Amino acid sequence: MLHQMLARLAREYAHARVKPFAESEFGNFVRHDIAIEAKKQLIFLPFALNVKASVGAGVWASVPWLGFFDPLITKSATTGFYVVYLINPHTQDIFLSLNQGTTQVYQEFGESKGREVLKRRAQDMALRVPEFSKHFNTSEINLGSTASLPTGYVAGHSFGRKYNAASIDEGSFYEDLQQMIYAYETLIDRGGSTPSDVMQEEAGSKDIEETRRYILSRRIERSESVRKEVLKALPPICQGCNLDPAIHYNYSGKLQNTPLDVHHSKPISGLSEGETRRYQVPDDFMVLCPTCHRMIHKQNNTADLQALKETLQFLHK
User: Fold this and answer.
1) Which of 59-73, 185-199, 265-279, 296-310 is predicted most confidently?
2) Helices 196-203 and 208-222: crossing angle, nearest 10°?
């Protein structure tokens, strides 16, 4: 069971890290066994999340962790925001946390100002999903380390729950995890940590629900993993004007880099918060050239390909 494995990690980590890092059996237990067990907890949840457990890269980390990442936001603990279990090996405390990537923020603002940025964003994240955050603890967490990354985790903590390895209530543990995953996905649906005015400017709308749906749809379109799947499933030719990069641009590079856009054609009005499936590949997508993509987003119905074709009056039609 996951709670038992994390309890073992908290109890034994301090002792394990005095041993060589390379080929550590304990390290493999964390990276492999804990990650597999964590994935099992997602089987009956309607979200496709990546899972990773870490004890460091090349050397033992001050704070080991187990993270859940939505690929629309991030694939690692260095960027974006995610759900994570953080371990304090000194107190043997386990923190379930809605947290943020510190590396990218540190690179942009430096460590001191970066932590201030993370704290502000953490507060904004909690305010954006109040129906979830009110059931968790928003007080500062203690990871027992003043190292760069742990202090970033402390600053980036939005809300969560603390457990101790000696006394974890099994029922509450798994209920908390499920609620945290739903909080995470709801936060994504509502725009993450992006300020409302920025989202509204991009969406060209003052209606907050329409804005959130638009931002989610665009986030799906811009996802590297989604783009790769769609371009493998659909011909690399604009479905609006029939522009073929191989013919009209003499393009011969990688499919992933083709000068075409992936358009999430599911109507914005059809995206509801907490929807169990945000998209299906290739059913919910079109491949369009940048011009056609821009034009279809100006339509009332962004799924109406025929309406787009009827407006085209240039060569490739």
Assistant:
1) 59-73
2) 80
pLDDT of residue 312: 87
Indicate whether 3 pLDDT > 90: yes
Could you give the CA distance from residue 97 to residue 258 in angstroms, rounded to a whole number? 39
In 10 A of CB 43, how many CB atoms? Answer: 6
Once rounded to an integer, what is the mean pLDDT over residues 15-43? Answer: 95
DSSP letters, the chain, are -HHHHHHHHHHHHHHHTTS-STT-HHHHIIIIIIHHHHHHTTTTSS---EEEEES-SSS--SS-EEEEE-TTT-SSTTSSEEEEEEEETTTTEEEEEEEE--HHHHHHH-HHHHHHHHHHHHHHHHHHSHHHHTTSB-SPP--S--SHHHHHHHHH--EEEEEETTB--HHHHHHHHHHHHHHHHHHHHTTTTS-HHHHHHHHT-S-HHHHHHHHHHHHHHH-HHHHHHHHHHS-SS-TTT---HHHHS---S-GGG-S-EEEE-S-GGG--TT-S-S--TTTTEEEE-HHHHHHHTTSS-TT-HHHHHHH--STT-
Residue type, 69: F
Question: Domains in the chain, start-ordered, CATH in brackets?
Answer: 2-189 (3.30.920), 222-311 (no CATH)
Query: In this predicted model, what pLDDT tens digit does every residue of 231-253 receive, in sequence order?
Result: 999 999 999 999 999 999 999 99
Nearest to 82, CA basis, from 160, 140, 135: 160
Residue 22 has pLDDT above 80, yes or no: yes
pTM of the model: 0.84
